[in-house]
């Protein structure tokens, strides 16, 4: 199998999620770009339901859940946010703590509902203080929902900031829109009466999706991304340098990026704290490269759509490679050996990134059977068609 891709790729769902929250405050704000993925459909419908007073369903999207919870709390009323089981297995204590500090009542009921009762934001102290050691999305949600406040809002982050790069992306995105945030992390201030000055925003291609295609082209074929956004605000835009370090052919020229398969790939040592979405595919690519690799720095991977640490380790073990799970990553002894004659049955547990990681083994010659392959629709519904694999795996 060989990949042959030329194009832009889908728009970034991370930026679209943020842009739709902004648009809910300023309906004249124009979003240039779209995505057919489940996460975007969920946040669009959730915002529509919020406007109409209907029940709000967030599916498995933790991003939508965290962003929408603070969005609805800006308006007086009672709201119920529901979702699938896995969503409510993820940690939400910090979200409830933030809401409570804003003078908003919030609690989990029936194991799959967040009940919010609000009279609008009424901060209960001089500053919000909350932990960022599980996700930076809580801080991003505060920033995105701090439009036109009656008074300055201060907040301070306690402990390490996991996925700091995504919080940085939120700050850069708001800056591009003319929204001013004062101070320096971990302490920030949003001035009262903040509004945006820009009335439109063009969404970049989704770098996480482009990285997925780059991994397939690294094994077999070629991917040409055009136009290539060199100065991207997305954390996963670092993938060209990562692949280059592994010996993959990566050429940037005249606004395009070309990734081409090579006969030899070497292992990698890297801190993946700021790139958790890249982890499953990168780990499998390391397993299909020569030498030892160590991916570390991301204990929060266990709280994603699946426990990505243990599930990725299990997948790699099925290839016959040695893998050791650590507290925050994986040690992998890779090999360029093909998987001809070897069958792998893999359940990604509804995790889109894990399904893509399993599919990567197809390009290495493994006979891979993936359960619930449609879970890729969460972020990349075009995935199976682009890589040339029938949907009925």
The dominant shape is: globular
Number of helical runs?
13
What helical percentage do the residues reach?
25-40%
Q: Characterize the main sheet.
A: 4 strands, mixed
Strand percentage lies at 15-25%
Computed over alpha carbons, the radius of gyration is 21 Å
Can you give a write-up of this model?
With 393 residues, this protein is of the alpha/beta class. Helix content is 33%, strand content 23%. The protein has 13 helices and 20 strands. It has helices spanning 13-25, 38-52, 62-73, 85-89, 93-101, 137-144, 164-176, 207-219, 239-245, 279-287, 308-317, 352-360, 383-387, and strands at residues 3-7, 30-32, 56-57, 77-82, 105-109, 113-118, 128-131, 153-158, 181-184, 187-190, 200-202, 221-225, 249-253, 256-260, 269-271, 291-296, 322-325, 330-334, 343-346, 367-370. The strands form six sheets. It has a four-stranded mixed β-sheet, with helices on one face. Strand 13 (249-253) and strand 14 (256-260) form a beta hairpin. The longest helix has 15 residues, at 38-52. The radius of gyration is 21 Å and the shape is globular. The protein starts with a strand and ends in a 6-residue tail after the last helix. The mean pLDDT is 94.
């Amino acid at each position: 199998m060989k990949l042959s891709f030329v194009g832009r790729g889908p728009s970034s769902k991370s930026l679209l999620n943020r842009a739709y929250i902004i648009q809910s405050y300023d309906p004249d704000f124009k979003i240039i770009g779209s995505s057919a993925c489940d996460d975007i459909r969920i946040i669009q419908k959730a915002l529509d339901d919020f406007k109409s007073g209907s029940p709000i369903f967030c599916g498995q999207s933790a991003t939508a859940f965290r962003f929408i919870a603070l969005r609805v709390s800006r308006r007086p009323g009672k709201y119920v946010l529901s979702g699938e089981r896995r969503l409510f297995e993820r940690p939400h204590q910090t979200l409830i703590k933030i809401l409570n500090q804003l003078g908003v009542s919030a609690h989990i009921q029936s194991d799959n509902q967040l009940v919010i009762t609000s009279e609008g934001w009424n901060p209960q102290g001089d500053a919000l203080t909350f932990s960022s050691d599980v996700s930076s999305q809580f801080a991003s949600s505060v920033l995105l929902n701090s439009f036109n406040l009656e008074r300055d809002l201060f907040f301070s982050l306690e402990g390490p900031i996991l996925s700091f790069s995504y919080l940085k992306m939120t700050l850069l995105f708001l800056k591009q829109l003319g929204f001013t945030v004062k101070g320096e992390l971990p302490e920030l201030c949003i001035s009262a009466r903040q509004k945006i000055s820009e009335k439109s925003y063009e969404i970049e291609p989704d770098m996480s999706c482009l990285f997925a295609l780059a991994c397939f082209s690294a094994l077999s074929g070629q991917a040409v991304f055009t136009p290539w956004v060199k100065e991207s605000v997305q954390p996963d835009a670092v993938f060209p340098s990562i692949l280059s370090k592994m010996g993959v052919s990566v050429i940037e020229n005249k606004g395009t990026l070309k990734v081409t398969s090579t006969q030899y790939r070497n292992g990698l040592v890297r801190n993946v704290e700021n790139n958790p979405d890249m982890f499953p595919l990168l780990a499998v690519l390391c397993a299909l490269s020569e030498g030892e690799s160590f991916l570390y720095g991301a204990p929060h991977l266990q709280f994603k759509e699946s426990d990505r640490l243990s599930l990725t380790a299990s997948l790699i073990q099925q290839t016959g490679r040695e893998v050791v799970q650590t507290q925050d990553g994986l040690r992998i002894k890779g090999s360029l050996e093909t998987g001809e004659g070897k069958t792998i049955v893999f359940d990604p547990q509804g995790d889109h990134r894990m399904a893509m990681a399993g599919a990567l083994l197809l390009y290495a010659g493994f006979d891979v059977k993936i359960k619930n392959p449609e879970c890729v629709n969460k972020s990349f519904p075009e995935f199976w068609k682009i890589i040339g694999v029938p949907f009925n795996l």
